[in-house]
Amino acid sequence: QVSGAERGHLGRGQRGGGWRMATSDAYVRGTAVASVTVGGDGAPEPQHNLPAISRGPSDLGAVSGAAKNGLIPLNVEASDAGVARHDKSSSSPRAAASGTPLRRAPTWAITANSLAFMCVPRAIPACFAQTGWTVGMLALVYSSVVTYDTGLVLGEVCRLRPKIGSYPGLCGEALAACAARRGWSPQAWRDAGAGCCLVLQFATYYLTTVAELIYFEQFFGQLFDQSRLCQWQWLLVAAAVSLPVLQLPTYHETRWAAALLGLLPLAINVAVMFYEVLLVRPWRCQPGPRYDGLLGVADGGGALSGGGEEALSNATSPQGRDLNDVFLGLSAFAYAFGGHGFYPEEIREMSTPSAWPSVMNWTYGVAIPLYWACGIVGYYAYGDFSWSNINLNFPRNAANTASIGVQVVQEVYFILVGNLVMMLDIEMRLGIDPTVCCSAPPDPPPRHESRPTPPTQPPTPHSPATHTPTARLRSIASEDEPSAGRSAPWPEAAAGGRAHTGAEEEISSREISSRAARSAPLPVAREEEDAAAAAARRGWPRPPPWLLRLLVRSLFLGSQVFVAQLLLSGEGDRLIAVQSLIGAIGMTAFTYFLPYVLLIALAPVPLGAGRLAWMTLNIAAGLIVMFAGLASSVEELYSSSSGFFDGECRLEYTYSPESPDDPCFLSGLPHEAGR
């Protein structure tokens, strides 16, 4: 027995949740439904009487929780091979929002992207310069352990919600589950959670790209220091160089960019760093590196005499490290370990999602040794004088110049991947298919075409008729209809059998399929085809996807160039403050504690006491660092800013040993270091 409202729900799907009749999901009334698992050969294998837990039920995995809402989603789960094969047959942008047509990327491609974006080992010495040895070592140990764990936890959460292909979607599911347990409206909380997380994700990676643009223009200024171009002009050059690569549509297509523009420059720059450190050996210089936050104080760093002492004392006044500096450094550590904010989006594109632990093992197996080696060696060599742009700590020689040139190439990749998660979301909301380049939609078939008559014999599992949404719903409805010799699975049918009152309407399995199909919205592909055909009749042909993508991404990058211009108006090492702001705003949440919040909310069974205590501790620590780091970074940015659009035209870059705070300022460099 299905009421009129429920039949309408059958067609509409659940608003805001991404479930559509046109894809692979339907809603039927009852306490248990059949779950169809698509095997590696693409054939459906029915498994009866499994509770549906993917959408809306208050008790995850419990049939009673699903029955509270009266509507239970029919899930089409899939093995890795089956998902990959199914996804290639779909190219709907709205289906792409749930990850369906995007599952094309091999495991190595996601590994390369994850490692190339996250791994910034040369930034660790500047983090130590803010925190000092003790707090810095504790932060490095803690971050190495916790962020690896949260990466695995995110993979676990994505397995619990395989239809959700984004971090905001997972946050919405977590809030909806908590609300349903308390009897509140799950949909309202789902929308609120997804919206807040989306804003946080956009703010985080938007500002990440802004910081990379500032790095980019500085590297151009260092590389072409004799040029007459100003900083804002180099920003435009950086944007123009980045825009062609920015057209790569998904993580699948960025795999070669990750290898050539991300990982290869990473290896070269790490090698150059160790070469420069061993070439100069700043710990043997005068006055030598300092580690106490008191740059410019002449004690313990070697004998000072004459003009050197006067120059050193006049350059900087004694300034100790305070709590504000420590939280600034902790937020910068969060920035260095960031990347988790688009892990769900990367998992969405994996052809083999179950291989995610392998991605984490490779990413952290390479990144963590580099973080420890570069962090300890770099801070030991340069101390509190470690710059976030560490090339300024090196002598101006051929190796350093080559490293700057390589980083110009690497910045193109950072800008691409930092923006990709946001641009994909915008484009799929606008109906721009990320899997299509130039093809125009085919002419739609007429709306009044007759629907095929269902076969008189039940189709076999391998029959093509079972692979359409309507046929799947018809098959399930036929199985659930009460028949002789079989108990009714629906409560109303069990109570009254085939009898019903005048207020009820009896609907056969064929009628369920027919009415659901009539009330269901057209498939997304059909909607787009009809829109394209209507536009063509009006003389407005729909532009090809590549042109729409170019327009959207150009406007998006242009807005980031504008914001970067605002942040150029300052002095000192502002990049550490920008990075700390980014780390405080989102990297701390996405990387250190939100994965634990998601798992606690969505776990199908209660977590153990020990694991729950571990997660609670990390959530509390993450919240403290997040808000304290936000206050510290905002104060640092404000104090170093000279106003909007009021920055210097060109920056004067000083290399070792030109700055009075440089470890080799008094003794100078070894003779061979300047070559």
What is this structure's SSE topology?
Layout: H1 4-12, E1 27-28, E2 33-38, E3 44-50, H2 63-69, E4 72-73, E5 76-78, H3 80-87, H4 93-97, H5 107-118, H6 124-160, H7 167-181, H8 186-223, H9 231-245, H10 255-280, H11 306-315, H12 323-336, H13 343-349, H14 356-382, H15 398-429, H16 469-480, H17 491-496, H18 509-519, H19 524-537, H20 545-567, H21 574-602, H22 609-640
Parallel strand pairs: 2-5
Antiparallel strand pairs: 1-4, 2-3
Helix pairs in contact: 1-18, 5-10, 5-14, 6-12, 6-14, 6-21, 7-8, 7-21, 8-9, 8-15, 8-20, 8-21, 9-15, 9-20, 10-14, 10-15, 12-21, 12-22, 15-20, 16-18, 21-22
Describe the model:
This protein is mainly α and 675 residues long. 58% of the residues lie in helices and 3% in strands. It contains 22 helices and 5 strands. It has helices at 4-12, 63-69, 80-87, 93-97, 107-118, 124-160, 167-181, 186-223, 231-245, 255-280, 306-315, 323-336, 343-349, 356-382, 398-429, 469-480, 491-496, 509-519, 524-537, 545-567, 574-602, 609-640; strands at residues 27-28, 33-38, 44-50, 72-73, 76-78. A 3-stranded mixed β-sheet has the order 3-2-5. Helix 6 (124-160) packs across helix 12 (323-336) and helix 16 (469-480) runs antiparallel to helix 18 (509-519). 47% of the residues are buried. Residues 1-99, 296-318, 461-510 and 516-525 have low confidence and may be disordered.
